[in-house]
Design brief:
This protein has helices at residues 7-23, 27-33, 38-45, 53-62, 67-80, 97-106, 125-134, 143-156, 174-178, 184-197, 253-268, 273-288; strands at 109-114, 167-173, 203-208, 222-226, 238-242, 247-250. It is α/β, with parallel strands linked by helices. The protein has two domains: 7-80, 434 Repressor (Amino-terminal Domain) (Orthogonal Bundle); 88-288, Endonuclease, Chain A. β5 (238-242) and β6 (247-250) form a beta hairpin.
Length: 290
């Protein structure tokens, strides 16, 4: 699987296009002045190809960018040439999942809704292993591939504890707390670890009770990612969908707006943060008693 463009590369392309448009030049005009093909500049702006830092410097000089901002953009260009840590797992990232992992790693906020299992960023190793291993019923995976996917899932969770961590808000359907993934010890351990993670100031967990009057009736698991602006350019939100037949990353404003409205509604009919933690704690006790 080819490495997906990182957020840094996409940000760089957006900023270079903004600077060109501020100057008033077309792709064809700028490419001609640099003796490039128009397709090269177009692909750089659309993050379809990587770009050398020296080429970015030529563009910034042509666009008459001030020294301070030039330094910031060149630093971004240098970062965009570096592979993310997830590149070493590309052999076990199918479809658009590689794109999603890159986006997740650079997001500011994640809003997620879990309908069948605890969201991946909140799973402990044993619970996650049970889920990933169960996939071998419908897809050919070797034990080594399962272990690699498990390592990747655990590595992704670093975003919650790093400097400037991801802020994660998760709505979890109450049925997830009651659904056996593995044995009772596995479930009790997952409930306790979920409570520990919810103590982090950047992690917020809400339980959607089975008896809530929920609108809309929504079953899809999804994650909506938000990004901090950079260089006066807004990077579009992204929504990730993953089910048996579809794995998609959408950055269409209409789609992300719809999922934001849906998440807000689900959150509004969920238990409060304190009530949710009490419900999870009770679930841990129930699994311990089995």
């Amino acid at each position: 699987m080819a490495a997906a463009p990182t957020v840094r590369r996409r940000r760089l392309g957006i900023e270079l296009r903004r600077l060109r448009e501020r100057l008033g030049g077309t792709v064809e005009e700028i490419a001609e002045r640099l003796d490039w093909s128009p397709s090269k500049l177009s692909r750089i702006e659309n993050a379809r190809i990587g770009v050398r830092v020296s080429d970015v410097r030529l563009l910034l000089e042509l666009y008459r960018v001030g020294e301070s901002h030039k330094g910031e953009v060149l630093a971004l260009a240098q970062a965009a040439t570096e592979q993310g840590w997830w590149a070493e797992y590309r052999d076990v990232m199918a479809g658009e999942f590689g794109t999603y992992v890159a986006l997740e790693d650079e997001a500011r906020t994640a809003l997620t809704f879990g309908t069948y299992s605890i969201p991946g960023l909140l799973q402990n190793r044993e619970y996650a292993h049970r889920i990933l291993d169960s996939g071998r019923v419908i897809a050919v995976s070797t034990p080594r591939q399962v272990e690699r996917r498990l390592d990747l899932r655990m590595r992704r969770q670093d975003v919650l504890r790093r400097d400037n961590p991801l802020t994660l808000s998760a709505v979890i359907d109450e049925s997830v707390l009651m659904r056996a993934i593995g044995d009772s010890d596995t479930m009790r351990g997952q409930m306790l670890d979920l409570l520990d993670l919810a103590e982090l100031p950047n992690v917020h967990v809400y339980v959607l009770p089975l008896e809530s009057d929920r609108e809309p009736i929504f079953s899809d698991t999804f994650t909506l990612l938000e990004f901090s602006p950079a260089y006066d350019v807004r990077f579009p939100d992204a929504v990730y969908l993953d089910n048996l037949l579809t794995m998609a990353v959408l950055q269409d404003d209409n789609a992300t707006h719809m999922y934001r409205l849906c998440w807000n509604e689900l959150r509004s009919v969920s238990l409060s943060a304190d009530e949710s933690l009490r419900r999870i704690s009770r679930a841990a006790e129930e699994w311990a008693a089995r």
